[in-house]
Amino acid sequence: MLFVRHATTPGMRAVRFPADEDADAADLARAAVLGPAVAATVAWAAPARAARQTAAALGLDARVVPALAEADCGRWRGLPYEQVVREEPDELASWLSDPHAAPHGGESRAALAVRVGAWLDSVREEPGGVVVCDAGAIRAALGHALGLGPPGAGRFDLAPLSTTGLAVTREGWRVAHVNRKVLF
Prior knowledge:
Layout: E1 2-5, H1 10-13, H2 25-34, E2 43-45, H3 49-57, E3 63-64, H4 81-87, H5 89-97, H6 109-122, E4 130-133, H7 135-146, H8 150-153, E5 163-169, E6 172-180
Helix pairs in contact: 2-3, 6-7
């Protein structure tokens, strides 16, 4: 199974919490070049516009899967990280240290991990597919494959349009590669 982190968005460039926004046109053009390298008979995409746009640019006819959505950041959605650091430092510290915390009123990182892990196990019979989503869902999949909790899985760096590969085994999932950047 090949995961592709969706194209860059204005919010990513401005270092804001995720919000549903369009992908950058330049990154979508780069995704079109990547397309032949990620051709697949089955593809899935997160419901975010940037994920769906990236899948289309890759030439994939992706099924939209709510389980692949980025964690709901509640009232922090779209806010600059710096603003949250300044205005809600204790809440941010709680969210970063406790995977079950959701001080923003959205979804915890633990809930994201459970949701993505359950979906990943439900598609074990279709391991050759391509998934287009954001970093949180990819980190959750890596955590599920490696038996890591959200704090450990959160340590993976995942660049826009990078690929992460997982292979299904009898015992679960094996990590083939992480954050592989395709040169354009």
